Each structure stands twice: as C-alpha cells, then as structure tokens.
Amino acid sequence: MKSDMPPRTRGGYTSTAPRRRPTGSERRRRVQLREVEPEHPRHDRDETEEVLEGAPGGPIDRCILRSFHKHVAAKIWLGEDRAPLKLVNHGAKLQLWELDVDRSRIYETVQRSGLAPLISCSHRVASRPMLSAFCERWQPETTTFHLPFGEMTITLDDVASILHIPITGSMISFSQPLRVDDANALLVELLGTTDVEASRETEQCRSPSVRLQWLRENFSTITDVSSDDDIDFATRAFLLHLVGCTLFADKSATSVGVVYLELFRDLSMVGSYAWGAACLAFMYRQLTTATRFEVRQLGGYLTLLQAWIYEHFPEMFSSPDMAYIESRPRALRWRPHVIPDSLQSLRERLDRLQISDVCWEPYVDHQAEHPFPDIAWFSGCIKCGLVVEPYHPERVLRQFGHIQTIPPRPFAPPRPDRSILLDQYWERWTDHVLIDHSRGRRCHYSGESVAEYMAWYDRISHRIVQPPHLRSGFTTDARSSLPSHTASTSDSRNARALRLLRHVISGGRQQSGDYFWGALNEAHSILAGSDETSASHSTPSPAPAAHSTPSPATRPFFCPPTFVYPPPASVDPPPAAVDPHPSSPVAPPAPAAGPTASTTVYVRSKRKKKT
C-alpha cells in the first residue's frame, strides 16, 4: 500500500518540489565565503557580554563566570545600584520557645540529634550592609567570594567550628517536591493534628509549609507530664521550628517547609544526618539567588555567614567576647553588632583588602578541642534535599594553610534527580577527598600563592566592585596632587597601632605575658614616631629584641607575623578614608613621682590670689 506521506528530503524537511541545482555564480560565492571564514569559530555573545568584557573591572576571560552579565556586581559597575538586602534572621524567635526543666525529655532528644548548639549560638543581630557587601562578591559558578587577592568561601571546617553540628552522616535527600496533600498527611501523622487544622494551616501559607508561630502556639505548652505521644509530637515540632529558624531559614521569613518533618519521623535517627553539609548547601543557594540584581532579600543561616566574616576579617568587623572559651561554638566568640558604615563604604573597604588583612587559619587554638575534620577536603557536590551545590576546596587552599595554585575549572552540579549517585559519592567521601598532590605544599607565610595565580585571577575574576568614577573621597589624580604627608603620617601610625592592639584584644587571655609586653612596646614606638618601617600594614614591624617571638606552632593566629608579605597586585585602589576623629599624639612619659613644673606654678599663683 502506497503511503500518503510526502517524501522526506535530506535534513528532515518534507517537500514535493524537485531539488534545484546551484548555479555557477552561487558556487563561486560559496567558495569566497569559505575562504574568508575564520579558522576558529566565533562564539556568539550578546551585546551585554561584549560591554562587560571590555569593562576595566569585569572578567576578561568569561570561561569561568559565564553568567556574570546577570550579576549584581555587573549592574553596579554599569552605574546601577542596589540597596542593602533585607535579612531573614530568626535569632530572637528561638528565645520564644525555651526548653526548661519541665521539658527535659524534649531537650535530651534535641541533644542526641546534634542540633542543640543552634539554640544558644544564633545571633540576634545581623548587619545588613556587611552581609550585602559580601553577597555582591559571591560568584555562583565557583561558589566562592571573589576578593581583590583571590577566592575565599565557607568550608565544612568553618561550619563544624562555628556551629558544632555534625558534618558527617547521611545526606538529606528528597525524591521530589512535596505537594500540599502530602504535607497535610505528614502533619496529621507526625504532629498529631487533625485534617481540618492541617489544611487550614497550609492554605494560609499557600504552600506545603507551616508558620513558625503556629508551631509555638500548639506545641510549646507540652511538658514532661504529658503522654509519650504528645512529647514525641512536641519534639518533632520543636526540631522543625529549630531548623526553620536556623539552618533552612527561607525568604518567607515566617514559615518552614513541612518537607523537613520527614527527617524527624524516627527521632532516634535524627543525629545520623550531615546537618552541617545540608546547611552549607542551603547557604550557597541563598547566596547565589541574592547575586541577581532584582533580588532584595537574603535567606539562609545568617549566623554562619556573619561569624565566618568575623573569624576571617577580625580587624575590620569583629567585636570579640573576652569571656569566650574554646570548648564552645565559635559563633559565641563574637558580639554581633550592626556595622555603622554604609554599603558603598564597605564596598570600597573590601576593594582595598590585602592578603595581610585576612586571618586565613582562625581555628588553630580551637582545634585543640575540636580537631580538623578530614571531610573538609571532600571535593564534589553537597546537597540539601533538591538543592545541589558544588564544593571546591581546591579553590581556597590558603584557608587550609596550603599554597594556592591555579584550580581546575569548576564542575556544574548534576540534576537533583540523580540524588542516588550523589548519596553514594558522599557515603564514600574518603575516596573523593583531595589527594596530597592536589593540596600542594604548606604555606611559608599566610595567604601564599604561586607566582602565576594573580595573573590568572585578574583575567577570570571581577576583583573591584565599586566603579572608580563612583568612589567616595579623593580620586587618584586628586590624591597625587596633595602633599605626601597631608594625612598619611599620623593616620597611618594610628591605624597600625590600632591594628596591632586589635590583634591582642581578639586573642583573649590565652596569650603569654611576653607577647603582651612586646605588642604594647611596639604600639608605643609606632605612635611615638620612633618606628621607621613602612606604613603599610602588609609589612608588620618586628618585635623588640627583649620580646621572644613565639614559634609558629605555639603562636596564636592573631599574632602579627614577623615575615614580610609579598606586594599585592596593582589594582590602583582608592585612597584610604581619612579618620574624621584622629587620635591625639601620644605625650612623652611623665616622671615617676613629684608634681610637674606647670602644676606647681598654678597652685602658687592660686594661693597668692586667695591671700
């Protein structure tokens, strides 16, 4: 039987017309086009990418930051600005549901889960300008912060030290998104609510979620004298409330997904999950979302991000708690406060950052109580349910005390539906850690990198966020026309002395008396003007001869190093802002005893007037 389908021609198109042979002129034109065709095919780029590649602060090579044209930093460079992000911080809500002695059975289960440190270490205050400024430097392709001197990120070691929650165990996996009907069934089964109450709550949230306030109102009154089933319901509700306020705080700001309730079905297995890895993957995704210019809010566990900034940039942002002891989570080491600087000011401060401004290994003393976890060297993907993010320790080797080399290209995370394969990789994490060759050699000084690293980083990164024509203060030309000692001598001395004293203060009481004496003596010599070393903080002045410098093994991380940092790459940063309240010069020391001459004359003249 003859088919009624039209005949198929080459290329898959259907046509009944006979094929036309090209004429001689068409053949000659095709030959000419092939002769002028370039040897390598040109990649199609839109007009926005062409403009960004030519920008002084943009990446020259787009092989890494492929989506940079959608990044908020690209818009800022083109003259558009974004206000500080609104923050989702539930630190104060945790205090509304306390586990006192009447709820000891619930607290014991929470302790066995490994999530009990979250109750006490959550910051109640978060700084919008500071977190917004760091969010503008987050790059989704590398899951790292791109700073003027290289990349940094939040590692699994940071999570374990700051929060003291488990980072090993089973991955948190969900096969598919939770539907509203399934969420209602979970609420009835695991929390003991009725169908009507569950449906009413999910309808009010307009999603498979429940309000944090609803959890507190319905389950916070259950005590140890209640039935075993009621205590189990209240324990699951408290754990759901806890992770909704901390690890998985989303941008709804009032609710938490019911999907996490499945993790608390068997209360004896809650401690078997890698909560730290899931928290880190969720934080990565929230930072990635906030890099889009149209986004106005930042979710995730902001205590983790804020404490990480305090740890690695103690001289710029931190306010340490002198009563802290190393057995507690490092999040409790700091007193959270709102940075008074504006977002533009913080952008410029980050643009001026140098290698010596960073504390690369802040947990040296803390590792005596909590050793370094080997799983922090894992190179692969971490996930939280359907959120999958790459984890690249090879891009931040300096945070592990190793020399930074040029890392390989970042790998794109696989689809969430391949969760079984990701779980298998994570379960065999010892087979997927960086080998010794990939880790490289130990640093001779903090922040060391190979010679060719900065040239490569200049080409693929966006190092400066604030455009030069929008910077506050003096421009480069105006600065060069000023006298060389207009505001440099006294301000630089004050800044160096304050930086040295902040090292001492941030170290707490665990330092030796020799170190205190040496630091104070050096600060006095700087303020008195007897120190003749360079005013740059990247070259600290050596300690006096009487001060014995601690060895690298025993010296605390905040001790100013006695070596000289290599000069940073030239980026022509804006001048340092002049302190509007400069410190008064230090007066020469007074004699040990006896009144001064001026005081004696004043008293005598006063007595003469009285008589």
How much of the sequence lies in strands comes to under 5%
* Form type: globular
Average pLDDT confidence is 79
Q: Could you name the ranges where pLDDT drops below 50 across 5 or more consecutive residues?
A: 1-17, 31-56, 474-489, 531-611
Overall helicity: 25-40%
Observed structural traits:
mainly alpha; two-stranded parallel ribbon; 22 helices; 611 residues; 36% helix; three-stranded antiparallel sheet
Describe the structure.
With 611 residues, this protein is mainly alpha-helical. Helices cover 36% and strands 5% of the residues. It is built from 22 helices and nine strands. It has helices at 24-36, 47-54, 72-77, 104-113, 117-121, 128-135, 156-163, 180-191, 195-205, 212-219, 228-245, 275-290, 302-312, 314-317, 343-351, 419-427, 436-439, 453-460, 476-481, 489-506, 513-528, 597-610, and strands at residues 86-87, 138-139, 144-147, 150-152, 209-211, 255-257, 297-298, 380-384, 387-391. The chain has a three-stranded antiparallel sheet with strand order 2-3-4, with no helix packed on it. A two-stranded parallel ribbon has the order 1-7. α20 runs antiparallel to α21. The longest helix is centred in the middle third of the chain and has 18 residues, at 228-245. It starts with 23 loop residues before the first helix and ends with a helix.
Brief characterization of the structure:
This protein is mainly α and 611 residues long. The protein has helices at 24-36, 47-54, 72-77, 104-113, 117-121, 128-135, 156-163, 180-191, 195-205, 212-219, 228-245, 275-290, 302-312, 314-317, 343-351, 419-427, 436-439, 453-460, 476-481, 489-506, 513-528, 597-610, and strands at 86-87, 138-139, 144-147, 150-152, 209-211, 255-257, 297-298, 380-384, 387-391.
